[in-house]
Every structure is written in structure tokens, then in C-alpha cells.
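Let us practice reading a record.
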Amino acid sequence: MRDIITLADDPDLAHLVDLIDILPSPDVASFWDPKGEGNYSIGAKIKSDLTTILGGQGSAGDVDYFAVHVLKYLGRGNGYISEEKIGKNLTALQGLPAAGHAWIEDATRTAWILVTRYSLPRWRLSRHPSEAGAAWRKP
């Protein structure tokens, strides 16, 4: 049985969900689906991630997948949803440029924390942490 991760278990996950919550709902196509991709849109992916996590079914892999989606589609330097668009669409902040910048920085940092927390063991594969970087060390 896989271990379930809830918002109560991981405050960084709870924070990232809160950040997503101040954006338009994943059903708002004008924000999340500018290319008309429907079920394959960014909003559909985020909605699916949130449904799993908020439904009490989120495993470490699900949390990692959600965080990767945030990094890819909303994180700093992404090519999908611009900082300007995020800033203009933050609930109740109505276009405050600094808010969009701060949101992206916070979301990027928080998503990266989650990705490294839940992916790092898989990235290392079977190596022991002390072996990490061994190929770059001089003898």
C-alpha cells in the first residue's frame, strides 16, 4: 500500500495548494487553456493533481507530479503562462506586478522543495547519498 500525503502532513504542499487557490479555478479556460487543449490543458492537469491530493489519495509520486506541473507551467521562466498573466489574474490583487513576481518566486521555490523531497530518492536510484557526485570528485 502506498503512503498517502495530506496537507496536514506536509506544510509545503499545503502552501503550494494555497498559492494555486489564489489563481483562477482550473476550469477557467481563458487562463489555463489558451491553446484550446481541453482535457490536455494545463488547467486539466492541475485540476487532476488537486483532485487526487485534496481527495486524500495523494502519494509521494502524486505530490511530485503536481510540483513538477507547477514548475513547468507556472514556475519562474516558464514558457506557458507569463508572469504578467499570473499577476493580472491573482484573486483580489488585480494586476499588481510585484504580486505576480512574488507569486512566481514563491511557487517556484515551494515546488522545487517538494520535487527534491519526493524525487531525490528516485534520482539517486540505488546509490548511497555519500556516493552522490563521486564522478566529479578528483581522485
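A brief commentary: Residues 97-124 form the longest helix (28 residues).
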